[in-house]
Amino acid sequence: MKKIGLGILVVAIALTLSGFVSAAKLIPLPDKAKEVTKADNSPVINKVEIEGEEHLALTTPGLEKIVFIHYKKGFAKPPWAGGGKDKPKESKCYEFLGRGVKWQDLPVNYVIDPDNPDGLTEEFITSAIVAGVEEWDANTSTELFGSYAIDYNASWDNDAPDGRNELVFGDYPEEGVIGVAVIWGYFSGPPHSRRIVEFDVLFDIDFAWGDGTLNPAVMDLQNIATHEIGHGVGLGDVYETACSEVTMYGYSTEGETKKRTLEQADVNGIQELYGF
Question: In terms of pTM, does the model score above 0.85?
Answer without folding.
Answer: no
